[in-house]
Amino acid sequence: MTVWQTKEQLTDLLCSLVEYPSITNSNEEIAIIEYLYYILEDRDYYKKRPGHLNLHPLDDGRQLLTALVKKDEAKETLVLISHVDVVGIEDYGSYQNLAFYPRELTQELHKNVEDLPKEAARDLESGNWLFGRGTMDMKAGLTVHLSLLEKAMAGEFDGNLLLVAVPDEEVNSEGMLAALPALAEIRDKEDLEYKAALNGEPMFSKYPGDPAYYLYTGSIGKTLPGFLCYGKETHAGEPFGGLNANLMVSYLAQEMELNEAFIEKVGGERTPPPLSLMQRDLKFEYSVQTPQAAVAMYNVLYMKQSITELNEKLLQAAQRAKAKIINHYHHQASFYLEGTQTSAFHPDITILTYDQLYKEAVARYGKMEVDRRQNRLVNLRDQGDRDFSTTLVQSLASICKDISPMIVLFYSPPFYPAVSSNDDPFIQNGAKTAIDYAREKFGEELEVVEYFTGLSDLSFIGPTSSTSSLSDLTKQMPIHGNGFEWPTEVMESITMPIINIGPLGRDPHQWTERLELSYSFEKLPQILTRVIHEFFKTGRG
Questions:
Q1: Angle at 447 between CA 222 and CA 12, to 5 degrees
Q2: Which residues are CB-neighbours of 273 under 8 A, at least 6 positions away?
């Protein structure tokens, strides 16, 4: 008996998943994994083979799920990757109480169509879209993967499917990083050969109103560079006796935000420009002393360029900001200081990478003392990765403050390697199969895009497309080796070809997030079924 095959059945399943408000790091993020385990362990296949359905704990108490459906003694295995977590719902405003109830939210929006942007209103009135947090990103993809798993239980495919459902994709991808050793263990225990990983992230529009349908043969890379601006404090009554860190970080923002120099072009694809994801000073109490330090972090995406190339662009932005900061200071001082008045403070700004600052501190105090200070911070840590990265940099800057003002470039997690299987014949054949089948069966035109721009967990399992060594990044990452390590060996041991063929939706991470139902739950499952058949056929040579 099949229960996850029709559009209506899949819509019901999606709603049951969305009703778990599995915001990253919430208890419901644990609960939804348990719910998946519950609905799968009741299936006859897993009643007979309970060892093929497993929960795997993360170090922080969360868990991920793996569900293997094995075809007799077959080795060839396709990995289906989904994440269960979603972003918060503060943006829903008065609709917050309905954000996790798609049918009820959609019905309520029908009564208040005027609240919606025009495109969202048009979709709503078509009657074929379901609104709600997680409907698009990415519980619809998980829903379709469960329908494929059900087909595998019925013996549909001539190979094995392994579903991997993970938490934490929206923040640090700790779920996927924890899945890597689990995948290696399952591979060895069950004697499997991983042929490819299929993700079900939704299509992302290239521009507002984009009508095209996409599949992806890779996933874009993401770095999170930060700039610590360490100024010179002064009293508000003596404004030209120092340099305000808030002034420094504001000029950096002008140089970084949407800067076209960071747009990378590969073929017909382009990376979105940088955006600030966090900017604040590090003064936590009120006084009339100017903030000594401020920090900003930027979302910087890449495809093939190296970390060294990114560093050069970032340091150039800092140099331009430096010139403007100093010019601003002198220009404003000229209005305030009169006659023979001069300021004893003459601003200059030292620009450093984290690695250079660390070496400077070691040269002054010795490696043992610097490591002692950092180990002490690690032992007292009560901050998230980004705040703790900032603390580590600020600590070094404070003991080298005689070279301030300074701007220090560093990196913080998360980091997503750019990956691509665009030139892999196996993936090329799968993409062609999807395109041909969608056109012939449904009259839909699918377009291949090399890099999925929404970020995905494929970054930790696919072939990297940049020539950078990971050490180029980690030596500028203060948290690396201070309570955070990349599982480099495991990542390299289970690298496999990748493809992303997902549902149709709009407005991820917005309160108008929504899923189109006909393509997503009628056509997409058939397209994926056809692709999986072709993958196993090709795999047999």
A1: 80
A2: 258, 259, 260, 262, 263
Query: Interhelix angle for 118-126 vs 102-111, to 10°?
Result: 110
Residue type, 152: A
Calculate the alpha carbon distances from 10 to 308, 381, 520 in Å: 46, 44, 9
526 SS3 class: helix
Give per-residue pLDDT as tens, 100-148: 999 999 999 999 999 999 999 999 999 999 999 999 999 999 999 999 9
Buried b (16+ CB within 10 A) or exposed e, 147-184: bbbbbbbeeebbbbbbbbbbbbbbbbbbbbbbbbebbe
Q: How far, in Å, CA of 462 to CA of 379, rounded? A: 34
Q: 226 exposed, middle or buried (CB, 10 Å; 0-12, 13-18, 19+)?
A: buried
DSSP 3-state of 267: coil
Provide the whole-model pTM: 0.91
Q: What is the mean pLDDT of residues 258-285?
A: 95
The 8-class DSSP code of residue 440 comes to I
pLDDT at residue 539 greater than cutoff 70: no
Cis peptide before 278 (omega within 30 of 0): no
- Distance between CA atoms of residues 93 and 96, nearest Å: 6
Backbone angles phi, psi at 262, to 5 degrees: -95, -5
Determine contact, residues 410/388, Cβ cutoff 8 Å. no
Residue with tokens 């049951």: 16
- Which residues are bridge partners to 420 per DSSP? 218
Query: In the sheet that 505-506 helps form, which strands lie side by side, from edge to edge?
Result: 129-131, 514-516, 505-506
d(CA 405, CA 245): 9
User: Count H helices, E strands: the chain?
Assistant: 17, 21
**How far from 531 is each of 33, 111, 437, CA to CA, in Å?**
27, 41, 9
The answer to whether 68 touches 162, Cβ cutoff 8 Å, is yes
The alpha carbon torsion through 295, 297, 298, 301 (nearest 10 deg) reads: 140
* Residue of 10, 3, 83 lying closest to 43 (CA atoms): 3
Given a contact cutoff of 8 angstroms between Cβ atoms, the answer to whether 190 and 272 are in contact is no
Residue type, 32: I
Spatial distance between the Cα atoms of 328 and 498, rounded to a whole number of angstroms: 50
Domains of the chain: 7-219+418-461+496-537 (3.40.630.10), 222-415 (3.30.70.360)
Alpha-carbon gap, residue 287 to 280, rounded angstroms? 16
Report yes or no: 535 and 430 within 8 Å, Cβ to Cβ. Answer: yes
